[in-house]
Amino acid sequence: MRWIIYFLGYLPLRWLQWIGALLGFLTFQFSKSDRRYILENTSLATKKYQVKIDSIACAKASGMLLTDSLWIWRNPQKALSMTEIRDWDLVETAFAEGRGLLMLTPHLGAFEMIPRVLAEHFTATIIYKPAKQAWLNELIEKGRAHPQMNFVPANLQGVRQVARALQKGEAVGILPDQVPGDGEGVWAPFFGKLAYTAVLPAKIANKNAVPTIIFSAIRKPKGQGWVMYAKRLATPLSAISSESAQQINEALEEVIIDHPEQYLWSYNRYKAPMGVSAPVAESTIP
After folding, report:
1. Taking a C-beta distance cutoff of 8 angstroms, is the pair 76, 31 a contact?
2. Three-state SS across 98-163?
3. Can you spell out the DSSP letters for 30-80?
């Protein structure tokens, strides 16, 4: 498997995205759990925002999310040249305030492209969950390696490194739609259903009024690259965890719903992690 992944990274982006789309489609057809998550999760977004979401397109995009990452890791400089950057003045203004920068990068489009772009301009510390397979984790770390990117594990040691980065006025990044561990989140609505949501982003932002920006890298058709967008949270995050978690989820919804077919709906966003009781209200929230 390792050598197959290495080989795939050398293919042209358009070919690799076609392979990813095929893998995503086949997974949708033969994996009951993936199909169920995509159908159930997109139905929540459809109900709340009254938009039509193509479940097959979502399945294909989930496969392309993986293959995009492989290509970016193997072709970082070419990937940069194929990324159109929007709203950069917003990022520069926020960073110039001197309090660091909190980057929220949901699983939307080619999210692996975002830290690569940002690292061309300033030092960034990114919190991530290491892969369970040692060889896969090694592949990911090697692909992400950059002199201005520091990837740290999602544990106490990693949080301390994030705190030190912010003290230096640097940028830190978090995947805000990843289910956190026991004691690291609260239940908050996400597309009308309670999801266990990380409280760390708000703690970071509230420490020193750190500017918070949601980034997305939307895939262009036919392997032409990506368009990277930035959206700053206009309202400071609440000091109350349940309220700040809802603020973040609502901001994520607004970004996701602009390009819903490129979001990772196959992820079980509403699961209760080990040691966490399911929410009292299981039904969707009006």
Report:
1. no
2. CCCEEEECCCEECCCHHHHHHCCCCCEEEEECCCCCHHHHHHHHHHHCECCEEEEECCHHHHHHHH
3. H-HHHHHHHHHHHHHHHHHH-----HHHHHHHHHHHHHHHHHHHH-HHHHH
Structure tokens at 190: 């996400």
Q: Residue 167 in contact with residue 118, Cβ under 8 Å? A: no
* pLDDT one-digit tens code per residue, 87-137: 999 999 999 999 999 999 999 999 899 988 988 998 889 887 766 777 666
Residue extents of the structural domains in the chain: 2-262
Distance, in Å, from the CA atom of 270 to the CA atom of 86, rounded to the nearest integer, reads 31
For residue 183, the tally of other CB atoms under 10 A from its CB is 9
Hey, what are 40's tokens?
A: 């159930």
- 103, 172 in Cβ contact below 8 A? yes
Query: pLDDT (tens digit, 9 = 90+) per residue, 46-85?
Result: 999 999 999 999 999 999 999 999 899 889 999 999 999 9
Residue 62 in contact with residue 41, Cβ under 8 Å? no
Nearest Cα residue to 228 out of 147, 75, 67, 115: 115
pTM of the model: 0.90
